[in-house]
Design brief:
Length: 313
């Protein structure tokens, strides 16, 4: 059976991008007709746009106070930065307490019905091991991600830890894929948190050699180009999204001067003025890499952090 519902623009857009997967409603006579497997068609109240979703599960409660205690509110129409102030009282404007007591309420868990053309394309990269290491957490975490996250379809790419070549490998792949966004992931040994980068800087200055033996000192990445470019992904939304998962995260204002920064700056320079989003996220060592007293992060947690980042791109 197909059911039709009107929806305000903000929750409509959140469902469209995969940020909202549970629709909250009064369990009135109309909603009692909804069954798992049915189709919901949402109409944007300010346009003629519609979204079709499949009903995956129905969560029935006596009122929204109970529902808010039991369901993940980050899937119910709240952005990560709104979770601290989220309250069942927010629903009173739509459904007064007396109506909640009369009918009960329901969280309708949904899955957006997409066609292949509905997805945005994300090229996500991780580095190979370097400096004598046998593993690089950036690529290991990227490999663990699913093929689709929200509105994004992922293309994963392992790249060499080599000045210039890393960026060229990404640009070659992007030329074929034509992605909507490129998210690069790197290892930042010694950091105690996931750190989305805010800037790429026009400087190569290596403390150690890359995997081809290159060790540039105080050299520009692109001669005559700007000193820096800001990342074009929502860095602070990323930080809030990762923290909402209970994981350590903060914005970084230095991607270093090694291959990570070389890659980030080159991509920002190449895509400057275009609609292609460019971002970079550093993750800490894995526990098996970290010496005693050195911060680390479990691989599963690193992958969870990247998942949260991608959902708010």
């Amino acid at each position: 059976m197909t059911h039709y519902m009107n929806l305000h623009p903000q929750p409509f857009s959140m469902i469209a991008c995969g940020a909202k997967t549970i629709e909250l409603r009064l369990l009135d006579e109309k909603r009692k007709l909804i069954c798992v497997g049915d189709t919901l068609v949402f109409k944007n109240t300010q346009s003629a746009d519609t979204l079709s979703c499949t009903v995956k599960k129905l969560h029935v409660f006596a009122d929204f106070e109970q529902l808010y205690r039991c369901l993940p509110l980050d899937q119910c129409g709240y952005w990560p930065h709104e979770l601290k102030t989220a309250s069942a009282k927010d629903m009173i404007a739509y459904y007064p307490p007396e109506k909640q007591m009369c009918f009960g309420v329901v969280g309708i868990e949904i899955e957006l019905i997409r066609t292949s053309t509905d997805f945005k394309k994300l090229l996500i990269t991780g580095f190979d091991p370097f400096d004598g290491a046998s593993i690089n957490p950036s690529w290991e975490a990227v490999k663990r991600l699913p093929e689709q996250i929200g509105a994004w379809r992922l293309t994963k790419l392992e790249i060499p830890t080599v000045f210039g070549l890393a960026a060229q490998t990404v640009l070659d792949a992007a030329n074929d894929l034509q992605p909507d966004a490129i998210l690069c992931v790197g290892q930042a040994g010694g950091r105690d948190a996931v750190t989305p980068e805010t800037y790429g800087v026009n400087l190569r200055h290596a403390r150690i050699a890359d995997n081809a033996g290159n060790k540039p000192l105080a050299a520009p990445i692109v001669q005559g180009a700007p000193a820096s470019y800001p990342a074009t992904v929502p860095v602070h939304d990323m930080v809030r999204a990762v923290r909402a998962q209970g994981l350590p995260c903060r914005a970084s204002y230095s991607a270093g001067r090694f291959v990570c920064n070389d890659l980030l700056y080159t991509l920002l320079h190449h895509y400057n003025g275009t609609n292609t989003k460019i971002g970079f996220v550093h993750i800490p060592y894995l526990p098996e890499q970290a010496k005693e007293g050195t911060p680390s992060l479990m691989l599963e947690s690193a992958a969870d952090a990247l998942y949260a980042v991608i959902k708010v791109l």
